[in-house]
Amino acid sequence: TLQLIQNAAARVLTGTRTRDHISPGLRPGVPSVRPPPVFVSPTKLASEAGSQVEYLGANRVPDLQKVFQRSDGVPVHLKRGLIDKLLYRTTMGLTVGGALYCLVALYIAAQPRNK
Amino acid sequence: MAHQAHAYHMVDPSPWPLTGAIAALLMTSGLAVWFHFHSTTLMILGTILLLLTMFQWWRDVVREGTFQGHHTPPVQKGLRYGMILFITSEVFFFLGFFWAFYHSSLAPTPELGGCWPPTGITTLDPFEVPLLNTAVLLASGVTVTWAHHSIMEGERKQAIQSLALTIALGFYFTFLQAMEYYEAPFTIADGVYGSTFFVATGFHGLHVIIGSMFLAVCLLRQIHFHFTSEHHFGFEAAAWYWHFVDVVWLFLYISIYWWGS
Predict the structure, then answer these.
(1) B26, B66, B70, B226: best mutation site toward chain A, by most A Cβ within 10 Å?
(2) Would you state the CATH architecture of domain A75-115?
(3) Does B46 touch chain A (CB under 8 A)?
(4) Strands, E assignment, B72-226
(5) Which of A6, A63, B31, B68 registers the highest number of CB atoms within 10 A of its CB?
(6) Are residues B46 and B77 located together in one domain of the fold?
(7) What range does the domain containing B56 cover?
Protein backbone atom coordinates (compact mmCIF):
# COMPACT_ATOMS: atom_id res chain seq x y z
CA THR A 1 0.00 0.00 0.00
CA LEU A 2 2.87 2.30 0.86
CA GLN A 3 4.36 1.68 -2.57
CA LEU A 4 1.05 2.60 -4.26
CA ILE A 5 0.94 5.85 -2.27
CA GLN A 6 4.49 6.71 -3.25
CA ASN A 7 3.78 5.94 -6.90
CA ALA A 8 0.68 8.15 -6.83
CA ALA A 9 2.68 10.96 -5.21
CA ALA A 10 5.38 10.63 -7.87
CA ARG A 11 2.76 10.84 -10.63
CA VAL A 12 1.26 13.97 -9.10
CA LEU A 13 4.68 15.60 -8.82
CA THR A 14 5.77 14.73 -12.34
CA GLY A 15 2.38 15.25 -14.02
CA THR A 16 2.36 11.81 -15.63
CA ARG A 17 -0.51 9.41 -16.15
CA THR A 18 -0.90 5.92 -14.78
CA ARG A 19 0.54 3.90 -17.69
CA ASP A 20 2.84 6.48 -19.26
CA HIS A 21 5.91 4.57 -18.11
CA ILE A 22 4.95 1.45 -20.14
CA SER A 23 6.39 1.51 -23.62
CA PRO A 24 3.76 0.82 -26.35
CA GLY A 25 4.95 -2.72 -27.19
CA LEU A 26 7.91 -4.05 -29.19
CA ARG A 27 9.36 -2.14 -32.15
CA PRO A 28 7.55 -3.13 -35.34
CA GLY A 29 9.36 -5.95 -37.14
CA VAL A 30 10.72 -7.63 -34.03
CA PRO A 31 9.18 -11.09 -33.60
CA SER A 32 7.67 -11.60 -30.17
CA VAL A 33 8.64 -14.69 -28.18
CA ARG A 34 6.24 -16.34 -25.77
CA PRO A 35 7.88 -16.78 -22.38
CA PRO A 36 7.73 -20.38 -21.06
CA PRO A 37 5.03 -20.86 -18.38
CA VAL A 38 6.88 -20.76 -15.02
CA PHE A 39 3.92 -21.31 -12.72
CA VAL A 40 1.56 -24.15 -13.39
CA SER A 41 -1.14 -22.97 -10.97
CA PRO A 42 -1.94 -19.27 -10.41
CA THR A 43 -0.53 -17.74 -7.22
CA LYS A 44 -2.99 -16.24 -4.70
CA LEU A 45 -2.45 -12.83 -3.13
CA ALA A 46 -2.73 -12.61 0.68
CA SER A 47 -5.50 -10.04 0.28
CA GLU A 48 -7.57 -12.53 -1.71
CA ALA A 49 -7.14 -15.36 0.84
CA GLY A 50 -10.17 -14.32 2.86
CA SER A 51 -10.80 -11.66 5.47
CA GLN A 52 -8.31 -12.94 8.10
CA VAL A 53 -5.35 -15.22 7.70
CA GLU A 54 -5.28 -17.10 10.99
CA TYR A 55 -2.45 -16.00 13.30
CA LEU A 56 -2.10 -17.68 16.68
CA GLY A 57 -5.56 -19.21 16.98
CA ALA A 58 -9.16 -18.37 16.13
CA ASN A 59 -11.42 -15.81 17.82
CA ARG A 60 -13.40 -17.43 20.62
CA VAL A 61 -14.69 -14.20 22.19
CA PRO A 62 -18.23 -14.50 20.73
CA ASP A 63 -18.60 -17.99 22.27
CA LEU A 64 -17.34 -16.75 25.63
CA GLN A 65 -19.73 -13.80 25.41
CA LYS A 66 -22.61 -16.28 25.06
CA VAL A 67 -21.42 -18.23 28.08
CA PHE A 68 -21.06 -15.20 30.33
CA GLN A 69 -24.32 -13.58 29.28
CA ARG A 70 -26.51 -16.57 30.22
CA SER A 71 -29.40 -15.39 32.40
CA ASP A 72 -28.88 -17.91 35.21
CA GLY A 73 -28.34 -15.51 38.12
CA VAL A 74 -24.83 -16.88 38.72
CA PRO A 75 -22.37 -14.14 39.74
CA VAL A 76 -19.48 -13.44 37.39
CA HIS A 77 -16.85 -15.04 39.64
CA LEU A 78 -18.60 -18.43 39.41
CA LYS A 79 -19.96 -18.19 35.88
CA ARG A 80 -17.60 -20.68 34.32
CA GLY A 81 -18.81 -23.53 36.52
CA LEU A 82 -16.65 -26.12 38.27
CA ILE A 83 -13.20 -24.56 37.82
CA ASP A 84 -14.47 -21.25 39.25
CA LYS A 85 -16.11 -23.04 42.18
CA LEU A 86 -12.92 -24.97 43.03
CA LEU A 87 -10.72 -21.90 42.87
CA TYR A 88 -13.22 -19.88 44.95
CA ARG A 89 -13.48 -22.56 47.62
CA THR A 90 -9.69 -22.92 47.82
CA THR A 91 -9.30 -19.16 48.18
CA MET A 92 -12.07 -18.89 50.79
CA GLY A 93 -10.61 -21.86 52.68
CA LEU A 94 -7.22 -20.16 52.84
CA THR A 95 -8.93 -16.90 53.84
CA VAL A 96 -10.88 -18.31 56.79
CA GLY A 97 -8.17 -20.74 57.85
CA GLY A 98 -5.49 -18.10 57.46
CA ALA A 99 -7.46 -15.53 59.47
CA LEU A 100 -7.90 -18.00 62.35
CA TYR A 101 -4.22 -19.02 62.19
CA CYS A 102 -3.28 -15.35 62.24
CA LEU A 103 -5.41 -14.63 65.33
CA VAL A 104 -3.86 -17.60 67.16
CA ALA A 105 -0.34 -16.52 66.16
CA LEU A 106 -1.00 -12.97 67.34
CA TYR A 107 -2.45 -14.27 70.62
CA ILE A 108 0.67 -16.35 71.22
CA ALA A 109 2.93 -13.47 70.20
CA ALA A 110 1.18 -11.23 72.73
CA GLN A 111 2.00 -13.55 75.66
CA PRO A 112 4.69 -12.13 77.96
CA ARG A 113 8.11 -13.82 77.73
CA ASN A 114 8.97 -15.31 81.14
CA LYS A 115 12.78 -15.32 81.46
CA MET B 1 -32.42 -10.68 33.26
CA ALA B 2 -33.56 -7.33 34.76
CA HIS B 3 -32.69 -4.48 32.42
CA GLN B 4 -31.06 -1.38 33.87
CA ALA B 5 -32.18 2.09 32.76
CA HIS B 6 -28.65 3.58 33.03
CA ALA B 7 -25.20 3.03 31.52
CA TYR B 8 -23.34 2.37 34.76
CA HIS B 9 -22.05 -0.92 36.08
CA MET B 10 -23.67 -2.41 39.19
CA VAL B 11 -21.18 -5.21 39.94
CA ASP B 12 -22.22 -8.66 41.12
CA PRO B 13 -21.45 -9.38 44.81
CA SER B 14 -17.82 -10.44 44.98
CA PRO B 15 -15.69 -12.15 47.65
CA TRP B 16 -12.38 -10.72 46.45
CA PRO B 17 -12.29 -7.52 48.54
CA LEU B 18 -12.61 -9.69 51.65
CA THR B 19 -9.96 -12.20 50.58
CA GLY B 20 -7.67 -9.31 49.60
CA ALA B 21 -8.09 -7.62 52.97
CA ILE B 22 -7.36 -10.88 54.81
CA ALA B 23 -4.33 -11.37 52.56
CA ALA B 24 -3.04 -7.94 53.63
CA LEU B 25 -3.61 -8.89 57.28
CA LEU B 26 -1.73 -12.17 56.89
CA MET B 27 1.15 -10.56 55.00
CA THR B 28 1.71 -7.82 57.57
CA SER B 29 1.26 -10.01 60.67
CA GLY B 30 3.36 -12.63 58.90
CA LEU B 31 6.13 -10.07 58.49
CA ALA B 32 6.08 -9.38 62.23
CA VAL B 33 6.01 -13.12 63.06
CA TRP B 34 8.96 -13.66 60.70
CA PHE B 35 10.96 -10.92 62.42
CA HIS B 36 10.29 -12.15 65.93
CA PHE B 37 9.72 -15.90 65.66
CA HIS B 38 11.66 -16.86 62.48
CA SER B 39 8.61 -18.51 60.87
CA THR B 40 7.62 -17.54 57.32
CA THR B 41 4.40 -19.63 57.15
CA LEU B 42 1.95 -16.82 57.82
CA MET B 43 3.66 -14.42 55.40
CA ILE B 44 3.80 -16.99 52.61
CA LEU B 45 0.14 -17.87 53.20
CA GLY B 46 -0.71 -14.18 52.89
CA THR B 47 1.25 -13.85 49.65
CA ILE B 48 -0.49 -16.88 48.11
CA LEU B 49 -3.86 -15.45 49.10
CA LEU B 50 -2.89 -12.08 47.56
CA LEU B 51 -1.94 -13.74 44.26
CA LEU B 52 -5.20 -15.74 44.20
CA THR B 53 -7.19 -12.57 44.90
CA MET B 54 -5.44 -10.54 42.18
CA PHE B 55 -5.87 -13.31 39.61
CA GLN B 56 -9.58 -13.82 40.26
CA TRP B 57 -10.47 -10.17 40.73
CA TRP B 58 -8.85 -9.01 37.51
CA ARG B 59 -10.12 -12.11 35.68
CA ASP B 60 -13.62 -10.99 36.71
CA VAL B 61 -12.99 -7.43 35.44
CA VAL B 62 -12.04 -8.91 32.03
CA ARG B 63 -15.18 -11.06 32.09
CA GLU B 64 -17.39 -8.09 32.98
CA GLY B 65 -15.89 -5.87 30.27
CA THR B 66 -15.01 -8.11 27.34
CA PHE B 67 -17.61 -10.86 27.74
CA GLN B 68 -20.55 -9.12 29.43
CA GLY B 69 -20.26 -5.69 27.82
CA HIS B 70 -20.49 -3.72 31.05
CA HIS B 71 -17.69 -1.28 30.13
CA THR B 72 -19.82 1.37 28.45
CA PRO B 73 -18.24 4.80 27.70
CA PRO B 74 -19.14 6.31 31.13
CA VAL B 75 -17.80 3.19 32.87
CA GLN B 76 -14.61 3.37 30.81
CA LYS B 77 -14.24 7.02 31.78
CA GLY B 78 -14.37 6.00 35.43
CA LEU B 79 -11.72 3.35 34.82
CA ARG B 80 -9.52 5.98 33.17
CA TYR B 81 -9.89 8.33 36.13
CA GLY B 82 -9.07 5.41 38.42
CA MET B 83 -5.87 4.50 36.62
CA ILE B 84 -4.72 8.12 36.44
CA LEU B 85 -5.34 8.62 40.15
CA PHE B 86 -3.51 5.41 40.96
CA ILE B 87 -0.48 6.43 38.90
CA THR B 88 -0.58 9.85 40.59
CA SER B 89 -0.43 8.17 43.99
CA GLU B 90 2.61 6.20 42.76
CA VAL B 91 4.24 9.46 41.66
CA PHE B 92 3.89 10.74 45.23
CA PHE B 93 5.33 7.47 46.51
CA PHE B 94 8.51 7.99 44.47
CA LEU B 95 8.56 11.71 45.31
CA GLY B 96 9.23 10.71 48.91
CA PHE B 97 12.33 8.75 48.00
CA PHE B 98 13.63 11.52 45.78
CA TRP B 99 13.04 13.94 48.68
CA ALA B 100 15.14 11.68 50.92
CA PHE B 101 17.91 11.52 48.31
CA TYR B 102 18.08 15.29 47.79
CA HIS B 103 17.83 15.94 51.54
CA SER B 104 20.97 13.89 52.14
CA SER B 105 22.90 14.77 49.01
CA LEU B 106 22.40 18.55 48.84
CA ALA B 107 23.80 19.08 52.36
CA PRO B 108 26.11 16.12 53.09
CA THR B 109 26.89 15.80 56.80
CA PRO B 110 30.42 15.71 58.33
CA GLU B 111 29.91 11.97 58.97
CA LEU B 112 29.92 11.49 55.19
CA GLY B 113 33.02 13.65 54.74
CA GLY B 114 30.99 16.73 53.88
CA CYS B 115 30.81 15.65 50.24
CA TRP B 116 28.60 13.73 47.83
CA PRO B 117 29.23 10.99 46.89
CA PRO B 118 30.29 10.28 50.48
CA THR B 119 33.92 9.41 51.24
CA GLY B 120 34.69 5.78 50.49
CA ILE B 121 31.82 5.23 48.05
CA THR B 122 32.80 4.19 44.49
CA THR B 123 29.80 5.11 42.39
CA LEU B 124 28.69 3.31 39.23
CA ASP B 125 29.78 4.89 35.95
CA PRO B 126 26.59 6.51 34.61
CA PHE B 127 27.77 6.05 31.02
CA GLU B 128 28.06 2.28 31.20
CA VAL B 129 25.16 -0.09 32.08
CA PRO B 130 22.91 2.68 33.46
CA LEU B 131 23.04 4.44 30.08
CA LEU B 132 22.22 1.17 28.31
CA ASN B 133 19.29 0.74 30.69
CA THR B 134 18.08 4.22 29.74
CA ALA B 135 18.24 3.31 26.05
CA VAL B 136 16.42 0.03 26.68
CA LEU B 137 13.52 1.73 28.49
CA LEU B 138 13.26 4.54 25.94
CA ALA B 139 13.18 1.95 23.15
CA SER B 140 10.44 0.07 25.00
CA GLY B 141 8.45 3.31 25.11
CA VAL B 142 8.67 3.44 21.32
CA THR B 143 7.64 -0.22 20.89
CA VAL B 144 4.65 0.14 23.22
CA THR B 145 3.47 3.15 21.18
CA TRP B 146 3.95 1.08 18.03
CA ALA B 147 1.82 -1.66 19.65
CA HIS B 148 -0.90 0.87 20.45
CA HIS B 149 -1.07 2.15 16.89
CA SER B 150 -1.10 -1.44 15.59
CA ILE B 151 -4.09 -2.24 17.79
CA MET B 152 -5.92 0.91 16.68
CA GLU B 153 -5.29 0.05 13.03
CA GLY B 154 -6.37 -3.57 13.42
CA GLU B 155 -2.91 -4.93 12.60
CA ARG B 156 -3.04 -8.11 14.68
CA LYS B 157 0.38 -9.55 13.87
CA GLN B 158 2.23 -6.26 14.32
CA ALA B 159 0.45 -5.59 17.60
CA ILE B 160 1.50 -8.99 18.95
CA GLN B 161 5.08 -8.58 17.77
CA SER B 162 5.59 -5.03 19.09
CA LEU B 163 3.96 -5.87 22.42
CA ALA B 164 6.17 -8.96 22.77
CA LEU B 165 9.22 -6.81 21.96
CA THR B 166 8.22 -4.30 24.64
CA ILE B 167 8.00 -7.06 27.23
CA ALA B 168 11.36 -8.49 26.10
CA LEU B 169 12.96 -5.07 26.56
CA GLY B 170 11.42 -4.85 30.03
CA PHE B 171 12.92 -8.22 30.96
CA TYR B 172 16.27 -7.15 29.50
CA PHE B 173 16.23 -4.05 31.74
CA THR B 174 15.46 -6.19 34.79
CA PHE B 175 18.25 -8.61 33.91
CA LEU B 176 20.81 -5.80 33.43
CA GLN B 177 19.76 -4.14 36.67
CA ALA B 178 20.05 -7.44 38.55
CA MET B 179 23.59 -7.83 37.21
CA GLU B 180 24.40 -4.28 38.32
CA TYR B 181 23.05 -5.01 41.81
CA TYR B 182 25.22 -8.12 42.04
CA GLU B 183 28.38 -6.36 40.84
CA ALA B 184 27.93 -3.06 42.70
CA PRO B 185 30.87 -2.07 44.92
CA PHE B 186 28.52 -0.80 47.65
CA THR B 187 25.50 -2.26 49.49
CA ILE B 188 22.28 -0.97 51.03
CA ALA B 189 24.08 -0.90 54.37
CA ASP B 190 26.70 1.59 53.15
CA GLY B 191 25.33 4.67 54.81
CA VAL B 192 22.71 6.98 53.42
CA TYR B 193 24.16 6.64 49.91
CA GLY B 194 23.48 2.91 49.89
CA SER B 195 20.05 3.36 51.46
CA THR B 196 18.81 6.01 49.01
CA PHE B 197 20.32 4.23 46.01
CA PHE B 198 18.92 0.76 46.64
CA VAL B 199 15.53 1.78 48.02
CA ALA B 200 14.80 4.18 45.13
CA THR B 201 16.15 1.95 42.34
CA GLY B 202 14.80 -1.15 44.07
CA PHE B 203 11.22 0.11 44.16
CA HIS B 204 11.64 1.24 40.56
CA GLY B 205 12.78 -2.25 39.57
CA LEU B 206 9.74 -3.73 41.31
CA HIS B 207 7.53 -1.40 39.27
CA VAL B 208 9.28 -2.50 36.06
CA ILE B 209 8.43 -6.10 36.95
CA ILE B 210 4.81 -5.17 37.74
CA GLY B 211 4.57 -3.22 34.47
CA SER B 212 6.02 -6.13 32.50
CA MET B 213 3.45 -8.49 34.05
CA PHE B 214 0.64 -6.08 33.14
CA LEU B 215 1.90 -5.90 29.54
CA ALA B 216 2.22 -9.70 29.42
CA VAL B 217 -1.44 -10.05 30.40
CA CYS B 218 -2.28 -7.55 27.63
CA LEU B 219 -0.28 -9.67 25.16
CA LEU B 220 -2.30 -12.77 26.10
CA ARG B 221 -5.53 -10.79 25.75
CA GLN B 222 -4.46 -9.40 22.38
CA ILE B 223 -3.69 -12.94 21.16
CA HIS B 224 -7.15 -14.03 22.32
CA PHE B 225 -8.90 -11.22 20.42
CA HIS B 226 -10.08 -9.32 23.50
CA PHE B 227 -9.08 -5.89 22.13
CA THR B 228 -10.89 -4.05 19.36
CA SER B 229 -9.48 -1.11 17.45
CA GLU B 230 -11.86 1.24 19.32
CA HIS B 231 -11.94 -0.38 22.78
CA HIS B 232 -8.73 -1.58 24.43
CA PHE B 233 -8.54 0.30 27.70
CA GLY B 234 -6.68 -2.50 29.51
CA PHE B 235 -3.83 -2.02 27.06
CA GLU B 236 -3.94 1.78 27.39
CA ALA B 237 -3.74 1.48 31.18
CA ALA B 238 -0.71 -0.82 30.86
CA ALA B 239 0.93 1.60 28.41
CA TRP B 240 0.34 4.57 30.75
CA TYR B 241 1.87 2.60 33.61
CA TRP B 242 4.83 1.65 31.43
CA HIS B 243 5.48 5.29 30.42
CA PHE B 244 5.29 6.25 34.10
CA VAL B 245 7.95 3.60 34.92
CA ASP B 246 10.10 4.97 32.10
CA VAL B 247 9.82 8.57 33.37
CA VAL B 248 10.70 7.53 36.93
CA TRP B 249 13.83 5.86 35.56
CA LEU B 250 14.82 9.05 33.72
CA PHE B 251 14.55 11.01 36.97
CA LEU B 252 16.52 8.31 38.80
CA TYR B 253 19.20 8.30 36.14
CA ILE B 254 19.62 12.08 36.08
CA SER B 255 19.48 12.53 39.90
CA ILE B 256 21.14 9.49 41.45
CA TYR B 257 23.30 8.00 38.72
CA TRP B 258 24.50 11.14 36.96
CA TRP B 259 24.26 14.19 39.25
CA GLY B 260 24.92 12.05 42.31
CA SER B 261 28.15 10.54 41.00
Answers:
(1) B26
(2) Irregular (4.10)
(3) yes
(4) none
(5) B68
(6) no
(7) 1-70
